[in-house]
Here is the input.
Amino acid sequence: MRHVQLAPAPAGSGLKPIQGTGHPGVLELLRFFRDPVKMVGSRREEFGDITYIKAFGLKFVIPLTPDGSQLVAMNRQKAFAAEPAWGFLIGPFFRRGILLMDFEEHRHHRLILQQAFTNTHIKGYLQDMQPMLAERVARFPVGDSIRLLDEFKAVTLDLALAIFLGLDLPRAEADRINRAFIDCVNAGMSIVRKDIPGTKWSRGLAGRAVLEEFFYRHLPAKRAAQTPDLFSVLCHAQSEDGHTFTDEDVVNHMIFVLMAAHDTSTITLTTMAYYMARHPEWQRRAREQSRSLPPEISYDTLGEFTILDAIMKESLRLNTPVPGLARRAIEDTEIDGHFVPKGAYVSAIAMVNHHNPALWSDPETFDPGRFSPERSEDKSHRYAWMPFGGGVHKCIGLYFAQMEIKTIMHNLLLRYEWSVPEGYHWKLDNTTLPVPKDHLPARLRAL
Ligand code: HEM
Here is the structure.
């Protein structure tokens, strides 16, 4: 097959050029959507440590080693910026979100945002979510074909309304806001990237307008009173050097954080449910542990859910909700001895490492035991397991996500048993974030 260079390496630099295929971009994107793990694996066989793939009319450099992922995420040379890459993918819908900021500006905003994720706030959110989630999971429908993705999506949305917004919205209004979010998220991976009526892109722009109007409308009340929800916390958050957010900042960060929190947690829950349905012995072990622990999770008991923890980590490895960290080179630089020209798009793709047979034993097998202290396969390299990213943009909500996910799963295990038919294997839709095409219909039975 014909290999094509991304750009010739400067003479005398000692660097090698990055190679990709001569295939048309649409073909590459379709292959990626169809089976990203297979595509990435075959790239490693063909190109070794690094390659580029074509998507959305651009070329994305993909490091194929954990060292390469680490270099991009840690960005010690400050050679990569997030905004020009994430901005291209999701900018019109999530502009001025924290992930779309770089360097000093990012640091300034992150220091204020961090105030909403201190231990004290995290403990407060965890305590507040216990009764709400227990009651919500108790209302799951039972039957032979319950689409678990939809159920988890509804629960995580209700959680967002309660814990993030602190608002008691009528169902129709909650659905309208949820729809607007979904439209914004789906628009990012749209192949047509213009405001043409009827396209995902134009629905995303309309969704953004709905969200802005919604948040500006509720903002004065949140500024006026201090309540424990994230919305109010952001209105009053102050960094140690006394900086606060403007109204515009609060609205932009709320829209981004809600997006960052919602589908990611839903996908993780769905993936855990899928593997526990296909591996009932793990479901049984997790249930036994849940029964041995108090029905309400507290900050101090969170660490005792070791089985759920291993299942969650393995699920995040096998189906990573945020497939890659998008960046753009703002100067000529290098990765693993290869020349990366200024302006190149770069993506550190988690599944590259999550399915690398040099880092994991039998990587395609669901095996939560690999995270046990004795085996610690995730410690083979700092970036062997990277579902929450790394460096300055590392997920700010990773503790929140784990609390939410464990609380929902703990309640589910105590109340229900679920299964999928013998031989069932899900098919993922990778055109947005990776979700099962059939929404995971499962048999859910009350215990
Ligand atoms: C299992 C669930 C989650 C996963 C897998 C996940 C994954 C990620 C990843 C990979 C990034 C880094 C992207 C990059 O560097 O390009 C990120 C950033 C971020 N996440 Fe999460 N996330 C999850 C849940 C959450 C939750 C619950 C929240 C909020 C409560 C949240 C808020 C954020 C924010 C604000 C950023 C941007 C941080 C920055 O740019 O400084 N995430 N997340």
The CA atoms of residues 125 and 424 lie 37 Å apart. The chain has one domain: 3-428. The chain has a mean pLDDT of 94.
